[in-house]
Known about the structure:
This protein is an alpha+beta fold and 264 residues long. The protein has 2 domains: 2-76 and 208-260, 3-Layer(bba) Sandwich (FAD/NAD(P)-binding domain); 82-198. The protein is 36% helix and 23% strand. Strands 6-7-8-5-9 form a 5-stranded antiparallel sheet. Strands 1-2-3 form a 3-stranded antiparallel sheet, covered by helices on one side. The structure holds flavin-adenine dinucleotide. Residues 18-19, 47-48, 81, 83, 143, 196, 200-202, 207-209, 232-233, 239-240, 243 line the site of flavin-adenine dinucleotide.
Amino acid sequence: MMAAALTAGGADWETNACVERILTDGGRVRAVVVNGREIGARAVVSNGSLPRTVHGLVGDGAFGRDFLDGFDREVRLSNSSCQVYIGIKPGERLEPMGDLIFSSTCPEYDADAIAAPHVTSRTYSVYYPSIRPGTDQYTIVASMNARGKDWDGLAPDAYRAAKRRLIEDTLDALSVHIPRIRQITDCTEAATPRTFARYTGHPGGASFGTKFEALKYSMGLPAQVGGLFHTGSTGIIMSGWLGSMNYGIITANQAEKYLEGPPV
Ligand SMILES: Cc1cc2nc3c(=O)[nH]c(=O)nc-3n(C[C@H](O)[C@H](O)[C@H](O)COP(=O)(O)OP(=O)(O)OC[C@H]3O[C@@H](n4cnc5c(N)ncnc54)[C@H](O)[C@@H]3O)c2cc1C
């Protein structure tokens, strides 16, 4: 659907295309480097991680000292998540138990414990055949908050073991709700902050990007580097589809105005 809309609007688009650098010249953007290929651009809108856009893709040399000092002092990454995917054996079925089950064994609200490696709070999403027409299979996805730093430094063996532990602990916790869960489970897999970092490019797997203080720096990019815009996640209401409606449209309008301005 997006591809059709882009093509109809006269856009060229590419997938599997990693923007490696945003090149600037005389205080303005001039090109992006995509998979080693330089493409000239008067304006660049980044929907990726804000810290990575500033420090990695553009580079500190293009920004004023005050901007960078404030940025490094104030901008905080959001937390990340872990997920455990549980495929139920063909032919087995789950009794209706709701689509979302929120569960916590923590005796009281504790913001630190919510994202701690020793998991006490989980949300289970239960997928029934009725909500996936064309299949007769059941799946459960357990979601947990997590912090990238608890997963980043693990060596390969320790990382594999930690993922295994996450899966086993989840099955144990789920057996409270579904006593036969181990007998009816066909396959399991786990995703961690490292998985989300790998596929989205958000440092620490911070799929919600940064917290809200980053918005002023995100909006301040064009004043630092002409033609540089950011519309990625800076706080939850600037994230995902909601972010596209809120912030994406505002930023697209600014980029368009910039491009319609006098050529430089
Ligand atoms: C496990 C999990 C569960 C979640 N559950 C929910 C939920 O229930 N409800 C909810 O509202 N949100 C949820 N979220 C968060 C939601 O996924 C994010 O808020 C949303 O995807 C952010 O959208 P975005 O477009 O800002 O960024 P992203 O979805 O991260 O999109 C950025 C895109 O830019 C690409 N990109 C980055 N850098 C580059 C580069 N250099 N070159 C080319 N491409 C690049 C990435 O590959 C990615 O496709 C969840 C996230 C996770 C990880």
